[in-house]
Amino acid sequence: MERVYRVVVWVTAKKALRRGQKKEISDLGGMSDLIFIKNEYYWIEDQAEQYIAAKLINNQPTQNQDYQMELYRTGSVVWINKTQIVGVIPSPGEITLKTLYEDLTDAIDISEPSVLWNLYQRYQMHNIYSGT
Questions:
Q1: Residue 60: which domain range?
Q2: Which of 58, 72, 106, 112 is 20 to 30 A from 118 in CA distance terms?
Q3: Residue 50 region, left (φ>0) first, then alpha (ψ -120 to 50), else beta?
Q4: Strand ranges in 36-120 using DSSP code E only, listed in sequence order
């Protein structure tokens, strides 16, 4: 049941952003306790790389709504404001991030951050062509 709620919240957040509405994921449906789960992976908005993957270390936010997260690529621990969290990476997150798809239609997660991540990883391996 938890996974269904998380997918609904992600889709609702993306629709709100497309319509130009500034909404935080945790404000959609009041399901913030289902969104921010310790040791789960999330997509974080980043100015340099567009999106980065990070694991939630501590699901107790500060007064400013900052969460302690570990960046997937570097392993560094940072504080991320909840407004920068743009999506959930399907469990198990580490396996999802390591799996590269020849055909992106086979991917479990076809969100914008996931597709860009997959293409970037394939580019790093000099394997730029995809079935989709």
A1: 2-124
A2: 58
A3: left
A4: 41-46, 50-58, 66-71, 77-81, 85-88
The residue type at 25: I
* Residue 107 counted as domain residue: yes
The mean pLDDT of 76-83, rounded to a whole number, is: 92
Give yes or no for a contact between 116 and 51, defined as CB atoms under 8 angstroms apart.
yes
pLDDT beyond 70 at 33: no
The answer, yes or no, to whether residue 91 has pLDDT greater than 90, is no
Instruction: Determine, yes or no, domain membership for 44.
Output: yes
Residue position matching structure tokens 């969100």: 111
The percentage of the chain sitting over the pLDDT mark of 90, rounded to a whole number, equals: 27
Q: Which residues fall within 8 angstroms of residue 132, CB to CB, at 6 or more apart?
A: 103, 104, 105
| Domains contained in the chain, number | 1
Q: Rounded CA gap, 61 and 82, in Å?
A: 9
Q: Residue 15 is part of a domain; what is its CATH number?
A: 2.30.30.360
Report the distance separating Cα 128 and Cα 1, nearest Å.
37
Read off the pLDDT band of 35 (50, 70, 90). Answer: low
Q: State how far the Cα of 64 lies from the Cα of 12, in Å rounded to an integer.
A: 24
